[in-house]
């Protein structure tokens, strides 16, 4: 038989094994373990997320051409209601 045909038959056998689940399952991906001393609390993770989110928002404003300053990161964001009011005022 030709080499091509042999390779084709081997791939068909492999597919049959996969479909019949005769192939051994691969090992799960490696996940490092952490001790309790280095584990972050939910509040720490949330604070980091908020800081990065705010920084990314200011960076996107800067890319769009708006004037931004480092001190803007410390200012609180406007509430949803005030943003909607501002949008409604500009719409009219």
Explain what this protein looks like in three dimensions.
By secondary structure, the protein is mainly α. Helices cover 57% and strands 0% of the residues. The chain has a domain at 40-92. The protein is built from three helices and no strands. The longest helix is centred in the middle third of the chain and has 23 residues, at 42-64. The radius of gyration is 28 Å and the shape is elongated. The model has no long low-confidence stretch (mean pLDDT 80).
Question: How do the strands and helices of this protein lay out in sequence?
Answer:
Blueprint: H1 3-19, H2 42-64, H3 80-91
Entry summary:
With 92 residues, this protein is mostly helical. It is 57% helix and 0% strand. The protein has helices at residues 3-19, 42-64, 80-91.
How would you describe this structure in keywords?
0% strand; mainly alpha; 57% helix; 92 residues; 3 helices; elongated
The total count of helices amounts to 3
| Overall number of strands | 0
Structural class: mainly alpha
**Multimer state:** single chain
Q: Tell me the overall shape.
A: elongated
**Arithmetic mean pLDDT:** 80
Radius of gyration: 28 Å
Described by strand count, sense and barrel closure, the largest sheet is:
none
Task: List the uncertain runs.
Answer: none
């Amino acid at each position: 038989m030709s080499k091509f045909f042999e390779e084709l038959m081997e791939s068909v056998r492999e597919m049959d094994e996969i479909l019949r689940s005769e192939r051994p399952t691969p090992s799960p991906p490696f996940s490092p373990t952490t001790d309790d001393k280095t584990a972050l609390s939910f509040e720490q993770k949330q604070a980091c997320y908020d800081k990065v989110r705010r920084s990314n928002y200011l960076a996107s404003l800067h890319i769009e051409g708006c004037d931004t300053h480092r001190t803007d990161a410390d200012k609180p964001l406007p509430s949803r209601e005030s943003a909607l009011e501002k949008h409604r005022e500009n719409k009219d």
